[in-house]
Write a structure and sequence with these properties.
Blueprint (H helix, E strand, L loop, with lengths): L1 E2 L7 E2 L8 E3 L18 E7 L2 H14 L2 E3 L6 E9 L2 E8 L4 E9 L3 H16 L11 E7 L6 E6 L6 E2 L7 E6 L6 E5 L7 E5 L6 E5 L4 E7 L5 E7 L4 E6 L7 E2 L7 E6 L5 E6 L4 E6 L6 E3 L6 E6 L6 E8 L2 E8 L4 E4 L24 E2 L18 H7 L4
Parallel strand pairs: 3-9, 4-5, 4-6
Antiparallel strand pairs: 1-9, 2-28, 6-7, 7-8, 9-10, 10-11, 12-13, 13-14, 14-15, 16-17, 17-18, 18-19, 20-21, 21-22, 22-23, 24-25, 25-26, 26-27
Length: 395
């Protein structure tokens, strides 16, 4: 899965990801909770005017990472009240004295959307760090059902109000938002039977071919400005390419070697690109304009699926092989070392190279405007995603 960029606090290792398939036929596994606890949590009490609103509000604040839900001794009392079919009022008071902080009515496209937007208002009023809320963000992800090879879906952050935006019934993977939320770029075998890159407007459903070069076309990502796209292309070998987001035919090859490469990701300022490359694979970083890639020594024999932190440009999340299992690590560009931050079993799944196009995988992804000490919460994996979807009313 991948979520529409907004200001966020937590590191999401499965919910905010890339191409996480929802598969009804697979057995359920509960992989537990993964936490990297922040330096200080804010105690809040949440109440709502209906059970449905209460359930969603508790779920939202419970996954934020900065808040702790408590019944007494809280710093803030947050109440949500439905005032119209698509409007919710949020009232926030501070401390035992009940000092008013904010009272605001928020409109949305639905009652659910209005509640999430109202929760974002509460986050902005209480976090004390100048962070924006992220609950009203959108996810994009891949769904595979019986008789369907895969399609790109869009939903809210908690898998509510999900909709199919491609309807191609073809092997599809790696959906990513454009920074303005107007396009999703993804890889599909829809037209040629080979991996090509497409874009789709999630509102109108219009689909356009972005890259259909001979061989592999995968791993496309919009730059932070939305003006460029990096991707993996090649016939026999794979290299990192950069294209104008509006004129992909003018794509430029940035690496030249026979080593298999995958998962390019932009630095927050768009000046550098980090990617995985064999042997290993290992992580490498290079200028977005080209040049010799420099290896990032993580200390692990397998390091892949890098994701640059928007909030802290010195940190890159990645998948590493730690002993006999795959886990999520954070590489620090200042200390030039990586630290495993996930503890539950099966924390990460091997993606493999770009040639393993049919595999189901999960990629770690940051969510935060200042995640120097982020908190990671395991929401769902390919093997347990159906259970979470059922709880969210997806199926």
């Amino acid at each position: 899965m991948h979520f529409l960029p907004r200001s966020r606090f937590i590191l999401i290792a499965a919910l905010g990801l890339s191409a996480l398939a929802v598969q009804a036929a697979q057995p359920v596994k509960d992989l537990g909770i993964v936490k990297v606890k922040p330096s200080a949590e804010i105690g809040v009490r949440i109440t709502s005017s209906s059970p449905e609103m209460q359930k969603l509000a508790v779920m939202a604040f419970g996954t934020h990472g900065k808040y702790k839900l408590i019944g007494s001794g809280f710093s803030y009392d947050i109440r949500f009240t439905s005032v119209a079919p698509t409007q919710v009022r949020v009232d926030v008071t501070k401390g035992a004295a009940g000092t008013p902080v904010i009272s605001q009515t928020v409109a949305g496209t639905s009652a659910r959307h209005a509640l999430l937007r109202a929760a974002d208002v509460a986050v902005e009023a209480t976090n004390g760090l100048g962070l924006k809320g992220f609950f009203a963000s959108k996810l994009t992800f891949i769904v595979q059902r019986a008789g369907n090879k895969g399609d790109v879906y869009v939903s809210d952050l908690f898998l509510g109000e999900a909709s199919d935006v491609t309807r191609q019934n073809a092997l599809t993977m790696m959906p990513r938002w454009s920074p303005d939320g107007r396009r999703i770029i993804y890889t599909s075998f829809f037209k040629s039977g080979a991996p090509d890159i497409f874009t789709v407007d999630p509102v109108s459903g219009r689909k356009d071919t972005f890259a259909s070069f001979k061989g592999t076309n995968m791993g496309a990502r919009f730059s932070p400005s939305g003006q460029q796209v990096t991707m993996i292309c090649g016939d026999g070998t794979s290299d990192v390419w950069v294209a104008n987001a509006q004129r992909p035919l003018n794509a430029q090859r940035k690496t030249r070697s026979d080593s298999v490469k995958s998962s390019p990701a932009w630095s927050p300022d768009g000046s550098r690109i980090v990617f995985s490359m064999e042997p290993g694979p290992q992580l490498y970083v290079m200028s977005a304009s080209g040049g010799a890639p420099q290896r990032l020594t993580t200390g692990y024999s397998y390091s892949a699926e890098p994701e640059w932190s928007v909030g802290n440009p010195n940190k890159i999340a990645c998948t590493v092989r730690d002993g006999g299992s795959f886990k999520i690590a954070v590489y620090d560009l200042q200390t030039k070392s990586a630290v495993v931050v996930s503890k539950a079993g099966f924390d990460a799944l091997e993606h493999g190279t770009v040639l393993r196009a049919s595999c189901v995988f999960s990629i770690p992804s940051w969510a935060g405007s200042n995640p120097s000490r982020p908190r990671a919460r395991r929401r769902c994996r390919p093997t347990c995603c159906r259970r979470h979807a059922e709880r969210s009313g997806f199926f």
